[in-house]
Specification:
The chain has 246 residues and is of the alpha+beta class. The chain has one domain. It is built from eight helices and twelve strands. The strands form two sheets. The protein has an eight-stranded mixed beta sheet with strand order 3-4-5-2-1-8-11-10. A hairpin with a 4-residue loop joins β4 and β5. The longest helix has 10 residues. The protein is globular. It comes from Aequorivita antarctica. This is Lipoprotein. Keywords: Signal.
């Protein structure tokens, strides 16, 4: 994934924290659902708002990407081939955008159903595209054109023989270091931001690789979290291996 949360979640939201929650529910056959939520309620309470002014904003909409890509095919065709390919990968994803400036609520989430966990490998790439689907004052959803930039960090999911793995890795060490350096000015303001994983499996969990993981009463759900900035600097921080009972 291109952790270009710089533009959406650092530059725009420099003075408040945001919460990221990555949720997965897996079925017996290996299918399931995956969702990543970005909670920006604190930003709304702080007075930021999506419009950057005092405009009253209310929205609760779901963007069905397959339908959206068809409706916006003319404008999408004007994007670079790279950006078009990224959008194409999100055909089976849905993006939920909820804003209410009066109740200080602002949440973005992207979700998908998968037949195989590998299909969720583009999930976090979708956060960037969700950031590009910022509604305008007329509540229309548009695609913003931006310059190509390489993906810096990737995440792979796998599930085989009762073992689930989440492996984050840096694709470009140099560019990652540049992004980390550019975030230093935001560190004092984003200290309260966290990234949480919450995964539910069809069988009880036997072992996990992370000693800080917590479990639900039925031992089928595991949760771990880390400060967002620390995770950004070291994606391995939330690597996870889960072994299920037979």
């Amino acid at each position: 994934m291109k952790l270009k949360l710089l533009s959406l979640f650092i530059l725009a939201f420099t003075f408040v924290s945001c919460q990221f929650t990555e949720t997965m529910v897996m079925n017996e056959d290996g299918s399931g659902t995956m969702r990543v939520e970005v909670n920006l309620n604190e930003m709304m309470a702080f007075g930021g708002g999506a419009m950057g002014d005092s405009t009253v904003m209310k929205m609760d909409t779901i963007v069905y990407m397959k339908q959206f890509l068809e409706e916006k095919k003319d404008s999408i065709s004007k994007l670079s081939i790279t950006e078009q390919q990224k959008l194409k990968k999100l055909e089976n994803f849905n993006i939920h955008i909820k804003m209410d400036s009066e109740t200080s609520e602002m949440v973005y989430d992207i979700s998908t159903n998968f037949k195989n966990i590998n299909e969720a490998n583009d999930m976090l790439n979708g956060l960037e595209q969700a950031g590009n689907l910022i509604p305008n004052k007329d509540a229309n959803t548009e695609i913003k054109k931006e310059e190509d930039s390489p993906e810096v960090v990737g995440v792979n999911y796998s599930f085989k023989n009762g073992i689930f793995k989440r492996d984050a890795y840096i694709k470009d060490e140099k560019l990652h270091a540049q992004q980390v350096d550019s975030m230093k000015q935001a560190e004092a303001f984003m200290g309260g931001s966290n990234y949480m994983l919450k995964y539910t499996f069809p069988k009880k969990i036997k072992n996990t690789s992370n000693p800080d993981a917590t479990f639900s009463a039925d031992k089928k759900t595991v949760s771990i979290q880390a400060p967002f900035l620390e995770y950004f600097k070291n994606p391995d921080l939330l690597d996870l291996e889960v072994e299920l009972e037979k």
